[in-house]
Specification:
about 280 residues; five-stranded parallel beta sheet
Amino acid sequence: MKNKTNFVFIGGVNRSGTTVLKEYLGLHPECIAINWEPKFIEHGLLKCLYSDLDFDEIKANFANKEHCTYPENKCKILLNWYYRAHNGQTQFEMVNWDKELNKLEKMINNKNSLITRELSVKQFIYFCYSRVAKKHTKYIVIQAPRFSFWVNALLNLFPESIYINVSRNPLDVISSLLGQYWGPNTIEDGVEYYKNKSEQIKKQLEGKMLRKFESRLIKIKFEDFILENKKCTKELYHKLGLKYYKNYDINVESAHIERWRSRISNRDAHKIKQVLNFLKI
């Protein structure tokens, strides 16, 4: 990967539209969107650096070479990080893959130097995505809701990167969560899930540590992006230093704006609003 190529990390509460934004940005001539949530970054390397995840678990998940990204429930169970790190191109294994993984393990286990460990993680992530970047690529766009819990770490590791946080109407988020196999089963649980995630993200984005990264933080409301796409896109490209490019016309209907109306009763919607207003979310 050329030094001029940087990352755009996209995060937010699950079901907020992070994938839609990633795919849209990926159509810009100077951007490349990674096909799937990486998992090995937000669930592996960062937890190994700053939490208590053992590197043996990372190695085990990289050893799993199953080719699967769908259905989602099967893929999550498989934890096939190797496939994701290769962006699905496992028929062409990266040159020196075993060597780079072994070097990463050695550096990560060097508990005496956080700087050395951080550098090794940074180099390994660059290594994984080196072959997707083209000569004209300015940004590699990666999306994962859990990036929102690692904003400070990501912006610190990659000083030229950008983080975009996507927010969406809580009613649409909660109603969409209820339809997921891994999501909450009741509206009450959905509200609790949304509340907890939103509070964690708010704490991240408003923390003192992030003040120095303020110029590299972008907040987008999903509804604005869909309904005022041209205006929102121009502002976003300007912040990213990209020339305006009309990617495609957004299909408002497929974006499911206010889809909650067909999934949640007005009474339940009123209850949700009361709870979220009380919590100032």
